UniProtKB/TrEMBL annotation:
Residue intervals of the IrrE N-terminal-like domain: 80-177
Pfam family, one: Peptidase_M78
Lineage of origin: Bacteria, Bacillati, Actinomycetota, Actinomycetes, Mycobacteriales
PANTHER family: ANTITOXIN HIGA1 (PTHR43236), BLL7220 PROTEIN (PTHR43236:SF1)
Originating species: Rhodococcoides corynebacterioides
Entry protein name: IrrE N-terminal-like domain-containing protein
Length: 225
């Protein structure tokens, strides 16, 4: 019998972090555990994770405009900052919807880490490694191992069909499938109409064609960390 998990609080997610200094690989594993926990809570095997899911975890305002001190031509993908009792997350509005969603998930990891004594825990990590940990979290949240295998088992076996289900670009889905050891070249029809179960996104850019190159996802030192 499937038992619905309750959404963990931010504190609970922070408690999943060790209290001691960890290395890069340990940090990746913690990030994956936190993301998987959220993905299971939000039943990512049945629906794409929404922006509202992410913003429900804490008081959060999402602004699609350049963060203070930058312009549309030089603003980073995302910045988060705690101000007057709430998190403000700036997302670069010139990037695709799917990229902005990935950036929001990345920023969520910064927010979780912010309350987890990260200066001690991440002492061994370089800033690019911390960014990579946040990317790893975002990947595991939006395309969790459990959910990808689940949908694969249900017959979604092409990057295109899985990308549609997860509201992710085909290129990103292909990379994820490869990382999870799934073939990406099966010439197999996906289950017809299956993806109708997933609500359409307002923007069509989660589908083939353009997508993001791998981050670095720039953040301002001391601001988003
Ligand atoms: Zn970052």
């Amino acid at each position: 019998m499937h038992k619905k998990l309750s959404t963990p609080s931010l504190r609970r997610l922070r408690d999943m972090m060790p209290r001691y200094s960890i290395n890069y690989h340990q940090a990746l594993r913690v990030a994956e555990r936190q993301a998987s926990r959220l993905a299971r809570t939000w039943e990512a095997e049945h629906r794409a994770i929404r922006e509202a899911d992410i913003s429900s975890l804490t008081r959060m305002t999402i602004l699609r405009r350049p963060c203070p001190g930058t312009s549309i031509t030089d603003c980073p993908s995302g910045v988060s900052r705690y101000e007057q009792g709430r998190w403000i997350v700036w997302l670069n509005p010139s990037e695709t919807t799917s990229r902005q969603r990935f950036t929001l998930a990345h920023e969520l990891k910064h927010i979780i880490d912010n309350g987890a004594a990260h200066t001690t825990v991440y002492k061994q990590l370089t800033p690019p490694e911390i960014e990579a940990v946040c990317d790893h979290f975002a990947t595991n949240l939006l395309m969790s191992r459990h959910a990808v295998y689940h949908l694969w088992g249900d017959g979604l076996r092409t990057p295109e069909s899985l990308a549609m289900a997860f509201h992710i670009s085909v290129n990103a889905m292909r990379r994820r499938m490869t990382a999870l050891g799934l073939p990406t070249d099966l010439d197999e029809p996906s289950v017809l109409d299956y993806t109708d179960a997933f609500p359409a996104t307002p923007a069509p850019d989660t589908l083939p064609g353009h997508f993001f190159t791998e981050p670095p996802n720039t953040t301002f030192p001391g601001v988003a960390a």
